[in-house]
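pls design
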């Protein structure tokens, strides 16, 4: 099956790799079998059992390894899940959503990096700080 595809997204992540055919993306497992059909305009790598996707000019949403949309497309941009949270962007800015798509750290940042060790680097108006998983600043925004 892999011979049908023209490009791969990269290395395997969570046991799957992104593949591209005629400018549309999907995912295959290690054996090369399709697990998420080639149908999306853009995808992010799988992480914690989900990946962000979008179709053409539609918003970003999340799909699971069964190809089921688990978080409906509604984000301007989205990252992958790390430590149970993913950075997601809406009109108000970047915030963090949980695995159900609920903002647990309200959208307020110009930039929001992945969590590592329970902390994430964020920025707003040129100032940089660090928040914990509850959104509490452990290092305030400073320039």
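designed seq:
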């Amino acid at each position: 099956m892999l011979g049908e595809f023209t490009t791969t997204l990269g290395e395997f992540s969570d046991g799957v790799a992104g593949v591209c055919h005629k400018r549309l993306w999907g995912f295959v497992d290690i054996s090369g079998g399709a697990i998420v059909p080639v149908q999306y305009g853009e995808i992010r790598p799988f992480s914690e059992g989900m990946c962000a996707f979008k179709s053409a000019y539609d918003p970003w949403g999340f799909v699971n390894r069964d190809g089921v949309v688990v978080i409906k497309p509604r984000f301007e941009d989205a990252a992958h899940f790390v430590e149970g949270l993913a950075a997601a962007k809406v009109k108000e800015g970047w915030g963090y959503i949980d695995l159900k798509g609920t903002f647990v750290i309200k959208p307020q940042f110009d930039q929001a990096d992945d969590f590592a060790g329970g902390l994430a680097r964020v920025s707003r108006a040129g100032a940089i700080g660090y928040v914990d998983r509850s959104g509490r600043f452990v290092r305030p925004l400073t320039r």
